[in-house]
Amino acid sequence: MQQINVRVNEYYGDDLIPLEFPDGWNVNTVEMACQNAPPMTNDEIRGALDNTLGASNITEQARGKRGRIVVTCDDLSRPTPAGRVFPFIIEQLHEAGISDSQIFILGSFGSHHPMNLDAFVRKLGDEAVARYDCVNHNPFHNSRTWDGRAVGRRCW
User: Fold this and answer.
1) What is the average per-residue pLDDT within 23-40?
2) Number of structural domains found in the chain
3) Fewest CB within 10 angstroms: 1, 88, 89, 92, which?
């Protein structure tokens, strides 16, 4: 048997689990191109947000906006470093004149299980959750069945 270790549970302990395959199988391990790259520095993150492709940066897009501003994130099933990038997004929103009371976080993960506050903390950090409203997307709210009946209920 061939054994390959697969990384799982990034937000719950970063474990490796062994997977076994028959010896006759041709098994290849493919990793992302950036697998061994160092994490981006603060200046690199700011530079990436300042120099977006095909659109103005967040500061320019948000300048003069009224009402609520939605910052979205994925759930814990995705290994994106949302908590690492979130403060820089907020920094740009503040530069545009957006107040904290205008900002809320929308967990957008389709039909995955909703996140509780602990999951939002793991994804975005204590400060973000303490400072901003965190709301789950609900794919069933304001949805209709095939025959036109309303389904679902408000997310918390």
Assistant:
1) 89
2) 1
3) 1
